[in-house]
Amino acid sequence: MSIIFRGDEYMVEVRVDAIRMSLMSPGHQVVILKDVDAERYLPIFIGKPEGDAIILALREEDMNRPLTHDLALHILDALKGRVGHVLINDLSNNHFQSLVVLQVNDKELTLDARPSDAIALAVRAGCPIFVDQEVMDVAGVVPQVGESFTGDMSAFEDFLDTLNLDDLDK
């Protein structure tokens, strides 16, 4: 398992596995992050424009004009900086929190960001995406073959049951 210890945090490296339309919230999408070393997934609900920005970056489509995330990277590059990594670092009131860690002039700068923006920047910059180990333990999903859950399920877990994980690679 790709768990990295940094400072006082354990981080799990993930990659964008899929982006799907949300069945629970029309007009929204779900970005599915996958643990690079395990069959564990982290679904994060995001807005459709943000999901589309990530999809464009994943497809490496060349746009005539820079999009917002491209502009941010151009500015950072002009300042001789780069995105070191992004970290989904907290889950509070059913909302994920994230950080963008920049390397500028031999200094590390950490900026608060929406997970969708952090992921879009990471995909464009080709930098690692990490999830705090505690966040992954709480919100990560491990597909269970042949098992059913009989406890009280949240709407979030109900939605996950509708996902066909075999389709995630398509």
Produce the secondary structure layout.
Blueprint: E1 3-6, E2 9-21, E3 28-35, E4 41-47, H1 48-58, H2 68-78, E5 81-92, E6 95-104, E7 107-113, H3 115-125, E8 129-132, H4 133-139, H5 155-162
Parallel strand pairs: 5-8
Antiparallel strand pairs: 1-2, 2-3, 2-8, 3-4, 5-6, 6-7
Short summary of the structure?
The protein is α+β, with helices and mostly antiparallel strands.
What does the model show?
There is one protein chain. By secondary structure, the chain is of the alpha+beta class. The chain has a single domain, classed as Bifunctional nuclease domain, CATH 3.10.690.10. Strands 1, 2, 3, 4, 5, 6, 7 and 8 form an eight-stranded mixed β-sheet that branches. A hairpin with a 2-residue loop joins strand 1 and strand 2. Helix 2 packs across helix 3. It is globular and about 50 Å long.
Largest sheet: 8 strands, mixed
Provide the helix percentage.
Answer: 25-40%
CATH topology: Bifunctional nuclease domain
Which range does the strand content fall in? Answer: 35-45%
| Annotated CATH homologous superfamily | Bifunctional nuclease domain
The domain count comes to 1
The name of the CATH architecture is: Roll
Q: State the order of secondary-structure elements, H for helix, E for strand.
A: EEEEHHEEEHEHH
User: What is the CATH class designation?
Assistant: Alpha Beta
Number of H- or I-type helical stretches = 5
- Structural class of the secondary elements? alpha+beta
Radius of gyration: 16 Å
Low-confidence sequence ranges:
147-156
The first-to-last residue Cα distance is 24 Å
Mean pLDDT: 84
Q: Which shape, going by the Cα principal axes? A: globular
> How many strand units?
8
